[in-house]
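RECORD TYPE: protein structure
NAME: Peptide/nickel transport system ATP-binding protein
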Amino acid sequence: MTTNMTSRSDYALELRGLETVFDGDKGAVAAVRNVNLAIKPGEIVGLVGESGSGKSVTGLSIMGLIDRPGRVSKGEILLNGEDLRKVSAKRLRSLRGDRMAMIFQDPMMTLNPVLRIDTQMIEAITAHDPRIDKTVARNRCRDALGMVGIPDPEERLYAYPHQFSGGMRQRVAIAIAMLNNPDLIIADEPTTALDVTIQAQIIAEMQKLCKERGTALIWITHDLTVVAELTQRVYVMYAGSVVEEGPLDDVLDNPLHPYTQGLIRSIPADNDPGSRLFQIPGMTPPIDRMPKGCRFHPRCPYVQLDCLNDIELTQTSAARSVRCAHPINQGEQVS
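PREDICTED:
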């Protein structure tokens, strides 16, 4: 598989056979199944799929934030080679916010509405370095706000979250995530609720920060247009599994999986604003009623009898893999 092409020490994060299940009256059902992923320092990777594809559960699993009845049941989560499934709860808490951080779609999942921004940011630093001088910590907070494009950062440190616009609150959340120079940031749909202008600014800032600091970034989204602007590689998820992975341009120009092809065809055409939008027929199946074999086969325009068999993620080239019994011809272009 492509995720094994490089030695472990070269990765900021590596997932090996990750499975996350939710326990119920009829037993455990898998929301994420056998996910393999690798990302190098400074690299930006897209994790793409519709709602219910398992991408957010994957992000929460990495962070150790899956609540009961959910649990990570199998696999390795390697942060700089350290398996997070084997560390103590105390060690995991110390890594969160320090060596790895998560940015949510709603910044108020990060921000406390009754505390000033400086209080929250300084606490994010001192929780991992209690000996740091408060003035030094406050200066770092001010610089972090300035780095994400918040005007008058010295003054805005003393504001409360409700005194910021939605876009500015998201910038504060990004600044908090970057405070301790983490090795990994997971961003879960962080710009979905923002207007296009603010979205573009935040994307540009994240690219700059990752390049300057060598931070690995996993950008979770349903929006391939954002992925096209931001990432270098992409993992496409459907119904809890990775169905395709590869370099961004290769995947967009020449998708191998019919689901990836459908996502690309769903992107509105800039040169034909009045055209009818393409929609993939059907819906993502619920996790407790997954079809046998290829999970996409009930929606697939190319389905054949052998699609009812279990299908593994198969490497098709040095940099690409696909989970499909009949990959789209590699010369076929998306239209």
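COMMENT: The CA atoms of residues 118 and 270 lie 42 Å apart.
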